[in-house]
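I hope you will forgive my troubling you with a question about protein structure. The full record is reproduced below for your convenience:

——
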Amino acid sequence: MGWVLGGAPCATGTCLALLRTDDAGRDWSAVTAPPTTYAPSNSADQGVSQIRFANSLDGWAFGPELWSTHDGGAHWAKGSLGYVSALETAAGRVHAVALDPSYTYEIETSPITSDAWVTTGSLQLGAGPVPELDLVVQGTT
């Protein structure tokens, strides 16, 4: 199973598009995308640029907005986290890094089957350039 998110030409210019494969990429089919815009390279304050799925039902479109689905993309809900720059899943949990209004990166965690986010860590930004973020998970770690 695989997913791809990107921009596609439409009547209003470029619209968000989401495709899914169930046969290792031989065939792709359109899936309902979240009702937002495509934001390549996190260049805007709205929209999404990345997609992650934990399984065939539970997935997230993010960067910088956060949208979740728990029915394979049939329905999407806008998340409560702001400016999500990284998101990964492992061991039945989803972890996100979100920038809060005080310019602190919060590490948020939720079970993959719901949107019950809890802050599990944070990193205060200091002087200097904005850091690049990587969130890496492996197995249960």
